[in-house]
Amino acid sequence: MTVDPRRLRTCLGHFATGVTVVTCACDDEPHGATVNAFAGVSLDPPLILVSLDHSSRSCRLLDGKPFTVNVLREQQEDLALHFAGRTAGAEVRWAPRNGLLAPRLLDVLAYLACSPWRSYDGGDHTLYVGKVEEFAYFGGEPLVFYQGRLTKVSPPTEESPWIGSLDSPEAGWLLPVPAN
After folding, report:
1. Which residues contact residue 112 at a Cβ distance below 8 angstroms, ignoring those fewer than 6 apart?
2. Are 152 and 144 in contact (CB under 8 A)?
């Protein structure tokens, strides 16, 4: 079966993702790229993964360098567009550098600062795995990418399906199946 890349991209767009800006330094100058291909890999050791197009400038800048994944807040659409090269003029606020860690953005929902672990060929992308060296998360709601557009999620309510469910984050997600 031949896979049509445009149709595959449309299908993949039906999976909502958070929006991140992956940052690194080159010649001590901070750089960043908007990325929605981000995932946790392992808790022990603490590893995460980002995927960057081989042809992107960011892919070449990130190779073998520490990087930070900055998870954007719902109000940070301007930053997402700025680091995607779609618009100029967004106010970019950098946190003070912390030793050998990569630069990070201020006022994000969360960040994970990583040392390089491994990189892998992923077809037309490079998969960068980083070892988490420092992280923090703050209050707020995430910016989300869905079907080719930036959007927001609704905050949880008392009617949310996980509230009071036995299969919830509070209950540990996966519960044993009762014996018959």
Report:
1. 48, 68, 69, 130, 132, 134, 135
2. yes
In CATH, which of 2.40.30.260, 3.40.1160.10, 3.30.70.100, 2.30.110.10 is domain 5-152? 2.30.110.10
Residue 156 pLDDT grade (very low, low, confident, very high; cuts 50, 70, 90): low
Distance CA 146, CA 128 (A): 23
How many H-runs (helices) and E-runs (strands) does the chain carry?
Answer: 3, 10
Neighbours of 75 (CB within 10 A): 13
Sorted by where each begins, the domain ranges of the chain are: 5-152
DSSP assignment letter at 176:
P
Residue 108 · residue 69 · CB < 8 Å: no
Render pLDDT for 102-118 as a digit per residue (tens, 0 to 9): 999 999 999 999 999 99
Instruction: Please write the tens of the pLDDT for every residue from 27-48.
Output: 888 999 999 899 999 999 999 9
